[in-house]
Amino acid sequence: MTRPPDPHLIMLVPAVVLTAAALATVVWLAAHAIRYLMADKAMRPMPRLAWRIRHTWPRTARRVGLVQVERTRPPWWSNRPPGTIVTRELIPAVTVTAERFGARVDASTVGRLGLVAFTDAAGHLADLWRVLLVRAEQVRPGLVRLRALLVDPLTNPTPWTGQAAGPAGPMVWAAGIDADGRPVTIRSSGVSGVVVAGLAGYGKTSFLNARFCQLAPRIRRCSSCSSTARAARTTTTCSPARGCTPKTPRSWCAITWSRCGS
Question: Is the domain of 135 the same as that of 96?
Fold first, then answer.
């Protein structure tokens, strides 16, 4: 005779599953809380904005008209009469990420809800989210990126850390940040010149001073390489008495200068 399963074991399985789910939720909340508490005072509004956008997106999309209504037939398992037409709302799925100056919202396009629709609704989204500006751009086909800015990046001073020159060195000019807070670089190689224009007091001199600060460490190192190269040209690897001519380590000098300029 087969014995029935123990009811205590049957009740233990859902308890274990619920306990594991509760533990995962606690760990997730604790990680976000620690990340929020470790952020400085100026960065804490950004996670709050991202959380608000993520959890109110369906209601926000309905209010600004980012919803497409689709008329379709009910599924085959439905108990509705044959020939019934039902309507359903299609809301673009979003992924929200907190950034330095606000939040980034990546929205999937649905039907006619593309870049034009999001651009037209940007002003209404800024009012609902209580941000300064919402800008829309097409990242790739099927994906529209919204940037909700709590702080205007162009009104904040950009600190000079000495690392802004980047790995490319003199070939790239680190110009600062754009209206979205992303780094902007200017290519310095293969161009005839760069024009720096603007009104008085708008930072042209500071902009050029920053460029000189970027080049100063490399100029000092290349000057040292030049002195070493000049000293190496005066040395000989053999004497005329042995039937050979002095050799200049020209390849070594070229390698040295290529390292200084890289």
Answer: yes
For 122, the token pair is 């940007």
Which residues are CB-neighbours of 98 under 8 A, at least 6 positions away? 46, 47, 49, 50, 104
The string of pLDDT tens digits covering residues 6-20 is: 676 677 778 888 888
Residue 194 has pLDDT above 60, yes or no: yes
Do the beta carbons of residue 126 and residue 134 sit within 8 Å? yes
Domain that holds residue 125: 41-72+88-151
Residue ranges of alpha helices (H) inside the chain are 7-38, 45-55, 57-64, 115-120, 122-129, 204-233, 250-261
The predicted model scores a pTM of: 0.63
Report how far residue 54's alpha carbon sits from residue 52's, in angstroms, rounded to the nearest whole number.
6
Residue at 162 is within a domain? yes
Identify the top-confidence range among 8-22, 161-175, 207-221.
8-22
Q: Residues with Cβ < 8 Å from 172, sequence gap 6 or more?
A: 165, 166, 185, 186, 187, 188
Would residue 31 count as lying in a domain? no
For 172, the enclosing helix (H) or strand (E) is strand 172-177
Instruction: Give the C-alpha separation, 123 to 261, whole Å.
Output: 47
Judgement on whether residues 164 and 107 belong to the same structural domain of the protein:
no
In three-state secondary structure terms, 243 is coil
Contact criterion met (CB below 8 Å) for 138 and 115: yes
Residue 6 located in a structural domain: no
User: How many Å apart are CA 103 and CA 68, to the nearest integer?
Assistant: 25
19 within a domain of the structure (yes/no): no
Same domain, 140 and 172: no
- Rounded Cα distance between 226 and 134, Å, is 52
The total number of structural domains in the chain stands at 2
